[in-house]
């Protein structure tokens, strides 16, 4: 009997008969991609090129039946399994070496119901698919700020972006999810059924099953007033001090995040500022257009003259995809995050020291606002534990050149270590590499125990462990 060796669920090896794989292939309506197939190299690639994983099988599912078949196959063969949405995860948790990838990228489709202001989304959708489908109705689901990010992984980790201050995290707008559980059964989690599962999916990541459909609440958003303003980094100390006072006074419809970064040497930026280290404020005002100039006036009135100002009216979808060309698939990424409550003078000093040593033009530090509507949800109401912070910080070393990988990693780690004493302990799971169990526990805080209980109920064998894992 011909067999192949796969990575087992507990990290050992398991042997699978070729005939079982053949049968699995026949049962699937989607493709089963194997290392010798011409499509394999493309199919296994992740967004972060620093991660190079070689799964044994990639099941490109087309529907719930395919997902169920794949879950049964992994279970029956005691095989390591990863779930892939958009493949944008930093540490590459949408794939695994030697195991089975349940690839949901073909399960796209967005259905907008303008009457109920709800949106149903397939797990293979990107953020941009959701923004695009909603735009015809002037509706948007609060989520991230780069249109190529997978909506599935983003949602399950929490999801924050330009609409967060006004309408909450993505999980605060998640009202229902269809899930294939570890035993292959199918359930719908909502406020009226499997409430505990919905609670866990709201921030607990891919630990509890394969989500095959998401339903969200959407909000009216059309033309917004937004975009970036840059100052030379020599002004950063003053701008950061001003920003920490300004944010709590700003209307919730105005979301402004702060970045310490470098002007990319490319259009549309004027050549004379290419490569300059900067402090950036990047805004989105989603209130009534005729109030936008007033709401954003302090950014222009109270701060020194900027070196670049592209803030203005634009379609929400344009702002959502503004940074896509700078961040194509295939760059090297190493990132770390933390939740920040106060931006102290000492922290600002540490930021300035490390931001001045970026190892590449794309490397950055961003502080995303997590206040407003996020604070109106209780700490125990969803798995997302940090409801009282002001920012979600990310420090990301980014560059196209693999030879720069070590420098990116060293810089991001050193920067993070300098800021961590000024942070809250945990960080956004979607801005983490594989950082160990203590970090996951710190991130879920008081909610961790309940997550373990729910994991025990829905996935007692920890089939879904290629994630920021909550052990049953
Ligand atoms: C350029 C860039 C910009 C970003 N901007 C933002 C931002 O503005 N806001 C923000 O909140 N985050 C942002 N992120 C972080 C983003 O949320 C994470 O990278 C997230 O993991 C991406 O999800 P994905 O589906 O693409 O990832 P994948 O790599 O496919 O999956 C990530 C994790 O989710 C699990 N998973 C995926 N789909 C499912 C499913 N259907 N069922 C169960 N588990 C599943 C996977 O197993 C894996 O553990 C950004 C990331 C990048 C690279």
Structural class by SSE content: alpha+beta
Strand content: 15-25%
Q: Percent range for helical residues?
A: 25-40%
Mean pLDDT rating? 97
Radius of gyration: 22 Å
Number of strands: 21
Residue runs with pLDDT of under 50 for 5 or more positions:
none
Largest sheet: 8 strands, antiparallel
What labels would you give this structure?
472 residues; alpha+beta; 8-stranded antiparallel beta sheet; 5-stranded antiparallel beta sheet; 21 strands; 27% helix; binds flavin-adenine dinucleotide
Give your account of this protein's structure.
The protein has 472 residues and is α+β, with helices and mostly antiparallel strands. It is 27% helix and 24% strand. The protein has helices spanning 18-27, 40-44, 64-76, 127-135, 151-157, 164-167, 195-201, 236-246, 292-301, 316-320, 345-355, 405-419, 437-444, 448-458; strands at 3-7, 13-17, 32-33, 57-60, 81-84, 100-103, 110-113, 118-121, 139-140, 174-180, 186-190, 210-217, 219-220, 223-232, 254-262, 277-285, 308-309, 312-315, 332-340, 364-369, 391-399. Strands 14, 15, 16, 17, 18, 19, 20 and 21 form an 8-stranded antiparallel beta sheet that branches. Strands 7-8-12-10-11 form a 5-stranded antiparallel beta sheet. The longest helix has 15 residues, at 405-419. The structure holds flavin-adenine dinucleotide. Flavin-adenine dinucleotide is lined by residues 47, 82-90, 93-94, 104, 123, 144-146, 149-150, 152-154, 156-157, 159-161, 205-206, 210-211, 327, 430, 466-467.
